[in-house]
Every structure is written in C-alpha cells, then in structure tokens.
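Researcher: Structure for this, please.
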Amino acid sequence: MTFPDVIAIDGPVASGKTTVGRALAVKLGFRFIDTGMMYRACAFLALRASIKLDDQVRLGILARATMLRFVTALEGDRLFAGEEDVTDQLRTPAVQAAVSAVARVSSVRTAMVAQQQQMAVAGGVVMVGRDIGTKVLPRAAKLYLDASVAERVRRRSVEEQGQMTFEEVSRNVELRDRVDSEREDSPLRVADDALRVETEDLDVNGVVERILGLLDGSKSDGPATG
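Model: Predicted structure, token format:
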C-alpha cells in the first residue's frame, strides 16, 4: 500500500481527530501535529500575560513572537513555547474557556498557520485541526471526521474527568461548534475533496483501518459534503 505523504484531518470538537490522528501517524510512522494544542498554548500565554481576550493587537503580537515546536516523548508529544514546556497547562478549564476567543483572531491564525505549514514542509505528517485541509495544507490528502453532538458531548465529558459537569461540557461543545463554524477567518468547513469518516460506531482501530482503506483507494465513502 502507498499513502499520501501529508494528511490533513479536520472536524468539530471531540470528533476523534486527535486520538485517531495520533494512531494513524503511529501506524504510518509519520509525525503527528495537533494544531489545537498550538492555539491552546497561545491562550495559556495570553492569560498568563493578563492580555484581554478582546485585545486583538496584543494577541497578534504574542502569537507572532511565540515559536512553538513539538517534541516526541515516551509519554506523548510535548509542546514547547520557546524553551518552556507548556503541555501540562493546556487542558485547564481557564484555557479551555479562552481558546475559542484567541483562535478566532485573524492575526493569531496567520501566525499559527505559518508555523504549521513550515512543520509540514518535510512531509511524513498527519496534522489535525479545523482548517487544515481548507487553509493550512490545501494540497494534502484530506479527511473530515465527524460524530453526532450527543456522542461528542459524551466523549468530552469522559476527557474532562469531572473537571466540568455534563451540562457545562454540553454548553462548551455547543459554543465551540458555533464559534468554529461562524468565525470570519478560516471557519470550520468540509473541504470539497475531503473524505468524510463517521467515527461514532467505530473504535479507534476501526476508524484508522477505514481511513487507510480510503487513502489507499481500495474503498471509498465518496467525497465529503456540507
């Protein structure tokens, strides 16, 4: 089997992008890049610097001044901002609440997209996010992962491990969906030539195997729509 050298995976919050993307990267021997971590890093750094979330000028300056890099470790990928490992700061409720506001700022997205494109230059990459196939890597092989809102809320509730109530998780998913799809700069969309993969009724290995079949051309669900 032969597979594309650069694979872009998009989809809404808790659609399985990160888990599936990481497993796919391991299977192919590719690097895995979770762009959501990069936006969370910007949100964390903005909160620490007491930058207001509506201060687009300062947020843009911060993003342009922040060099992010992923380092592979036995316990999982680590994200460094400069020389600082910020990985363990990225899943706090405060960062989760701030990331959508930071990620919608055009100057922040421009700075992050430039870094993401550079990360993919050498190839051998699976990159996940919300605008990878439509904006960041338009020439990549494109996948769009999806699941019902109820299933995505259930998954995110498990991930939160009690840090948020089910009702809070539900509101957060609804808000993220609305912000991601309605933002002016690079809204969440299904690329015209993306392959859509429903993840609801499959485990991670099942989704990966379906993707491998799609990418190898041995079977097809047809191009994504919507």
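Researcher: Any notable elements?
Model: The chain has nine helices and eight strands. The domain at 1-30+123-226 is CATH 3.40.50.300 (Rossmann fold).
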